[in-house]
Amino acid sequence: MTSWWRHLSIRVRLTLWYAAALSGLLALYAGGVFVFLRHSLSADLDGGLRDDREVAEQMLERTPVGGVGWRAEPDDDDDDAVAGRWLEVRSPDGTLLYARPSGIPADVRVRRLSAPYTVDGLPVVIQVARSEEPLRRELRELVMIMGAGLPLAVGIAAMGGYLLARRALAGVSRMADRARTITAERLGERLPVENPGDELGQLAAVFNDAFARLECSFDQLRRFTADASHELRTPLTAMRSVGEVGLREHRDAAAYREIIGSMLEETDRLGRLVEGLLTLSRADGGNVSLKREGVDLAVLARDVAGHLGVLAEEKRQSFAVEASGPVPAWVDRLVIRQALINLVDNAVKYTPPGGSIRISVRDGGPGPTIEVTDTGSGIPPEHRDRVFDRFYRIDKARSRDLGGAGLGLAIARWAVEAHGGRIDLESVEGRGSTFRITLVHAEGSNSVPGATTVS
Description:
The chain is an alpha+beta fold. The protein has twelve helices and 15 strands. A hairpin with a 2-residue loop joins strand 5 and strand 6 (122-131). Helix 6 (199-248) packs antiparallel against helix 7 and helix 7 runs parallel beside helix 12 (408-418). 20% of the residues are buried.
């Protein structure tokens, strides 16, 4: 398609397509009418020639001198000439025996009909002719009428088509005008949906869904930025305060060690926060490659239990790993290990002293599963849908005292979903919670936003 066509508006293109299609249809119709009329007029002309021949056969007679004549002479032979009809009677050798009115003129386009006949025992050839001028005149008039009428009809139809296209696409113009007003500060506005059942209404609904997702993403980004700023400010403020206290007056070595230890704790907390933010940022940008390998999830669970078991011992919590046998999975060992560490660390933090934590690993159903169950206080129903959001904490003050930044569960969910799996939560207030990781059986990569696979 040439460039000029692509630069035309949809209204103009629809009008041109409509006019071209209508012109083609009208041309076919006009051609059909022309052929039909020509055939009909030709049939009438041929029928008239046959009638003339039959009349001639009835009216011809043999003269006393051996010639051929008309039984009753007309008052004026010129009437036949004016009507465009002629008659010739010839002998078999071509000799003209009779002509009416005066023979067929050579300068007139006629249609002839010849037939042998016997006039009172005399063999002759009767030839009748009629002028084709009436037929041609009617066809010329038809061509003139169609030649003038068809362009006029196409022009009127094109104007009507343009107005119709303009009216039909007016909704698009209104949608475009409204879309221009939607900015980052006005993402709450939506396109008008005048008729949800037609194509424009469906298009507007799709755009509105996209705007809703965009608004949600912007809100999450603003909330993430605000929460990240707050979380980064808290340890920095604590470090500054501790440092200022240490500089106000001379202290003994033990006091300075306590101050430095406090600053190191805040530095460690800040480092974990930055590391979590970096992990999620890479995941959002699709810059994390999963290096999948065959992993026994039961062995992985025991490794995590050994790594975090000392934290449970400090709180006198019982820690158990349940696995009936090897549970193979095709995963990135480090990524799934981090997800499991985050879940277990979360369970240790929010389970009171003397409670219990259990990691259950089994293979069955939709795929390998890992369950982390604790006997903590449980999660209220109104918070369960948001505990995986970044920086979301049920008790912010308690979480901060425990060293949490609200990123552990968000990272765990990303790690599981990057493998094509899912993570679910079951919780009963006052009795505890169970986080369940469900992975897939199939070996190989899964197309998951935010992650690619390197085997």
